[in-house]
Specification:
Order of helices and strands: HEHEEEHEEEH
Number of helices: 4
Distance between the termini: 62 Å
Strand content: 25-35%
Largest sheet: 7 strands, antiparallel
Helix content: 25-40%
Length: 150
């Protein structure tokens, strides 16, 4: 049966999925713990994965090195604890959703007792509906954090 026949007969020929992107700045936390395993390079792109079995945070999102997929840090929880949790749920909601980390700077310590971190750009990709929903929530969290720190 061809595509036109499916449409005429009110049959759904296939679900078309449009992938969209969203970017935001962030950091890779915990560099002080992982620096013996990983030396970040500006422009380097790393994968992420959910860590539901993480003993410290069941919503943790790990950042993986680009060679052996070893954990080299985590995405920040944020002041309200919802930043990484939102990313965790975004990744879990659809197998097409992804988050990549692009290193944008050298290790820094902000003096806030959270250790060393690596500045980065988070690159999200997913189906259009997931991205639009995630984008609204992520922008709200970022705005909330900025207002809270002023």
């Amino acid at each position: 049966m061809d595509l036109m026949s499916l449409i005429v007969n009110n049959e759904d020929p296939m679900e078309i999925i449009i992938l969209r992107n969203f970017e935001t700045t962030s950091t890779v936390m915990g560099f002080h713990v992982y620096r013996s395993k990983w030396q970040p390079v500006i422009g380097q792109v790393l994968k992420t994965r959910m860590e539901p079995m993480n003993e410290v945070d069941k919503y943790a999102v790990a950042v993986l090195d680009d060679k052996e997929n070893n954990v080299v840090g985590h995405l920040p929880k944020g002041q309200s604890g919802k930043y990484a949790k939102t990313i965790f749920y975004f990744l879990r909601s659809d197998p097409l959703n992804s988050c990549f980390v692009k290193v944008t700077g050298k290790a820094i310590n902000m003096g806030d007792d959270k250790g060393m971190r690596i500045p980065c750009l988070l690159e999200f990709s997913g189906n259009g509906e997931s991205i639009q929903h995630f984008k609204k929530i992520a922008l709200y969290i970022v705005l909330f954090l900025r207002i809270k720190t002023i």
